[in-house]
Write a structure and sequence with these properties.
Pseudouridine synthase; two-stranded antiparallel ribbon
């Protein structure tokens, strides 16, 4: 499997995760995952910093040694790492900007759900980039890191991500080849200098086939 390198230094490696591959090993050992593939190619261990859903593409970061792993984990805990996603959702999102502040919990069968009483605090910011009569193109910034957070939050406001096999009406997703959610960028601080590093992943061409960027508002 060919994996595109986006950034590398002595501390981290960032790659462009293809859609359809798990970030880390799954329960079925015969399935390929990104961590195992990279570790085999490099011949050295890598440390998991964060994950992307199997159906999501885009930039993903791995630490190359324990000190960087701890440093990045601390940045995540202190909410100093900024992640930006691009999503295409069903329907015209009315507000140009919004914050979804709804608690999320696991509800079985790999699904997550909004549950204000038993869930964990979760917050997602979004900004509408473009609209058509049937879909909206969003820039999304999760402020917390719950499993399926973006997908659950957008579904909860009536705008599920196009092509989502778990959240939304199945009939709406007929004919779509993937989940239209892409990790576009990640920004973090360098271990030695403290300077900000931002790594970007180009938007897949498939996104142009669903939402015309010319039809803005």
């Amino acid at each position: 499997m060919e994996i595109s390198l986006l950034f590398e230094d002595d501390d981290v490696i960032a790659v462009d995760k293809p859609v359809g591959i798990a970030s880390i090993p799954e329960r079925m050992p015969d399935q390929t995952d990104l961590l195992s593939c990279l570790t085999k190619q490099r011949g050295v261990p890598l440390w998991v910093v964060h994950r992307l859903d199997k159906e999501v593409s885009g930039v993903i970061l791995f630490a190359k040694h324990p000190a960087m792993h701890r440093f990045l984990n601390d940045q995540f805990q202190e909410k100093k790492i900024d992640k930006t996603y691009i999503a295409i959702v069903h329907g015209r999102v009315a507000s140009d900007h919004g914050v979804i502040d709804k608690a999320i919990r696991a509800c079985g069968s790999g699904r997550m759900a909004v549950d204000e009483r038993r869930g964990k605090p979760s917050q997602t910011h979004y900004h509408v980039l473009a609209r058509t009569h049937r879909a909206s193109l969003l820039e999304v910034r999760p402020q917390t890191g719950r499993r399926h957070q973006i997908r659950v939050h957008l579904y909860s406001i009536g705008h599920p991500v196009v092509g989502d096999p778990r959240y939304g009406e199945k009939r709406l997703n007929l004919g779509y080849v993937r989940l239209y959610l892409h990790a576009q960028s990640i920004r973090f601080h360098d271990l030695h200098t403290g300077r900000e590093i931002q790594i970007n992943s180009p938007l897949p061409a498939a996104f142009d086939l669903v939402c015309s960027y010319k039809e803005v508002r």
